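Model it.
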Amino acid sequence: MFRVLHTSDWHIGKTLFSKKRYAEFSQFLTWLLGIIEQESIDILLVSGDIFDTTTPSNKALELYYSFLAAVSRTSCRQIVVTGGNHDSPTSLDAPKELLSSLRISVVGAARQELCEEIIVVKNVLGQELVVCAVPYLRERDVRVVEAGQSLEEKAAAIKNGVREHYQQVVAAALAQKAVTAPLIVMGHLFAARAVSVGDDSERELYVGTLAHIDIEELPQGVDYYAFGHLHLPQKVGGSEYKRYSGAPLPLTFKEAKKSKSVIVAEFDGAGIEPRVHELEVPVFQRLLSITGELEQILGMLHGLVASQESVWVEVEYTGLELCSELKERVEEVVQDSKVEVCRIRNPRSLELSLQEMAQGSDIELAELEPDYVFELCLQANGVDSVQAEEFRAMYKGILLEINEADVNAI
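Modeled.
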């Protein structure tokens, strides 16, 4: 029997409106180490987005490597780490030879030799479990660029390339694994019909939604799919054995409304349905969104201050009247308390500021979302609906190229 823990999307180094969160990441990794020991985990799978950026800080790297070293000293027999779209493939892969001596397999980027994405793990009885460690597949990994392709043709080529890669890796694994060995496939992708948070914490994998992958088109004969990329824990298509573990920490205030988890699966053999259950991750720092009229907001803040609990707050004013003193009134209430206001949204004031932008009025960048500014530009230039769709597709394509650039590659 093998006990496997599936997690993903740690995003170590992620800030929340300039607030550093290393204490939370450290607390999570300490908790996770305890779970690995408590649950007698044999294999740890981390399905991408280890870090939040391709250039993680020294503190983020320290947390990552210290955790891996600590796990290697437990009874866990194998750690498998795959790269996500936020990770630098070359940075993850750089120490892979050294980490392999600690029973840690790292696949930061797709391999030309597919056998390098296949990891065979043996338990004390000599029984085997096979892991297909498929990282985030970048456009250059799965398609040949052809001049004159439309965006639809490009997206279709990407989808076909992703499916073909998974089919080839699984076929290679099935050909070499023992008949009784369970097969797990790791992936970092956006499954069609899966539920996303719908904010900037999840960058879409490809241009638009055309390249979302239909899980039913992925290879059969797999005992468990361990997905990463989407931050809500969920079963894909209702299947117990095709799952997103979700991000263990709420990376935005919107995510804080949902519980977070890791997944434990027990495997007895190939073709035998694994026993799967979720373990809820504790809340290490409470995040709370407060919305309403001015007096409602102030009343809720007074209640939080009185509770003397450490809370990070996002405030959004929804009143129709212009409230220019919102920031000052909020800061006055929370001063010298355990309540920290990370963001204040005042749409009425922002609307007025945008109208006055041409006259040189100041706007706080924290109030502006890139997509919102892009839409304002389309409106300001009188772009018609047909052209607007074309510009949106090109805009997403540019973002894709920026997000996929591996700045650490030579």
